[in-house]
Amino acid sequence: MSRWFDTIPEAVQAEFVQEKLGALLQSSAYSQELLWTLQVYLESNGHARAASKRLYIHRNTLSYRLSRLQTILGCDLKDLDTVIDLGLALAFYRKNPLLHGGEEDVQIETIAPIS
Fold it and tell me: Where does the record place the PucR C-terminal helix-turn-helix domain (predicted)?
């Protein structure tokens, strides 16, 4: 998939990231926490129980964060097109140094997988 990413101009990637995640791209700790929550939730295929375990938080806390994400981003995390767009935007965000102050291959947060 990275070969496919390489064919998309960085300016287009940046515009897409801004469109989909713009409200979360502030440097505040809360915004970074919500980005991390979104990443883990998407990597957990939308399974709240698995995501809350990986985040080491209570399911109610995850539910609150997901609700805040939906409000801030103006989206529905149960909509497949939205989930695909957000996953792609997160991938572009992690890969594109122009979007996060010049650091290459930024990790929003490092998480150990649950076995």
Answer: 34-91
- Which single residue is written with the structure tokens 């890969």? 95
Domains of the chain by start residue, with CATH: 2-99 (1.10.10.2840)
Q: Which residues contact 41 (CB under 8 A, 6 or more apart)?
A: 48, 51, 62, 66, 77
Neighbour tally for 29: CB within 10 Å? 8
41, containing H or E segment:
helix 29-43
Which class for 57: exposed (0-12), middle (13-18), buried (19 or more C-beta within 10 A)? middle
In the prediction, which pLDDT does 21 show? Answer: 94
Residue 72: how many other CB atoms lie within 10 Å = 15
Q: Rounded CA gap, 115 and 61, in Å?
A: 22
- C-alpha dist (Å) from residue 56 to 10, 42, 59, 73, 114: 34, 16, 9, 24, 10
- Local mean pLDDT, 10-residue blocks, the chain (115 residues): 77 92 86 94 96 97 97 95 96 77 50 44
Global pTM?
Answer: 0.81
